[in-house]
Write a structure and sequence with these properties.
about 200 residues; Rossmann fold; 6-stranded parallel beta sheet; 9 helices; 6 strands; NadD/NMNAT; NAD; pyridine nucleotide biosynthesis
Length: about 200
């Protein structure tokens, strides 16, 4: 099987997350996408929604698509082991006979190339990646400008450009909720109702 590992805060999960995962599955002929919510202990994440709420919303959002599956591997990792390199190592052991691809946006490629990710060099050396376009980022130039990335560029970076630069951020949705806005149709209806029922994101940021 070919499996995409889609890591994000999912705070909350949005319709663009789902559309992106479906498009990646189709274009790259993946059999499954693992939705991997970020651990709250990560130093590079600032999360508002608790683990339970974010996990429940991912479950609600992906319930109707058999290609999609929740993984709490990062959330449940020991302190210090919650970063992507360690998570991918554990997932390789769980899926020893499958091909794993870490799915990320071009902005993350920039961060890894700059050396700001924990064990970023080993992550790049040992795994394959599907990289999604982001507005204003030239993925090929990003790879060529980084010694870390260009010296590992043996086909492990699968760039998905055309039509994947749609931007609706979780931050925007949280801001709308906190200011009494109406982001209802930017996320799955089940997740919108969950947020309203539990009063999430109601405090101003």
């Amino acid at each position: 099987m070919k499996i995409g590992v889609y890591g994000s805060s999912f705070d909350p999960i949005t319709n663009v997350h789902l559309w992106t995962a479906s498009t990646i599955c189709h274009r790259k002929k993946l059999d499954k996408i693992l939705f991997l919510p970020s651990a709250k202990e990560r130093r590079d994440k600032s999360l508002q929604g608790g683990d339970e709420h974010r996990t429940e919303m991912v479950k609600l959002a992906i319930a109707d698509d058999p290609r999609f599956e929740l993984s709490t591997e990062e959330m449940n990792a020991p302190i210090g082991q919650q970063y992507t390199y360690y998570t991918m190592q554990r997932l390789k052991k769980q899926y020893p006979d499958d091909e794993l691809y870490f799915v990320m946006g071009a902005d993350i490629l920039v961060d890894i190339g700059n050396g700001s990710w924990v064990k970023g060099e080993k992550l790049v050396e040992e795994h394959q990646f599907i990289v999604m376009a982001r507005d204003g980022i030239d993925m090929l130039k990003t790879i060529s400008a980084s010694p870390l990335l260009r010296n590992a560029d043996d086909g492990r970076f699968h760039l998905v450009d055309k039509g994947l630069a749609m931007e609706i951020s979780s931050t925007y949705i949280r801001q709308e909720f906190s200011r009494g806005g109406e982001p209802r149709y930017l996320l799955p209806e089940s997740c919108y109702q969950y947020i309203m029922r539990h009063g999430l994101y109601q405090d101003s940021e």
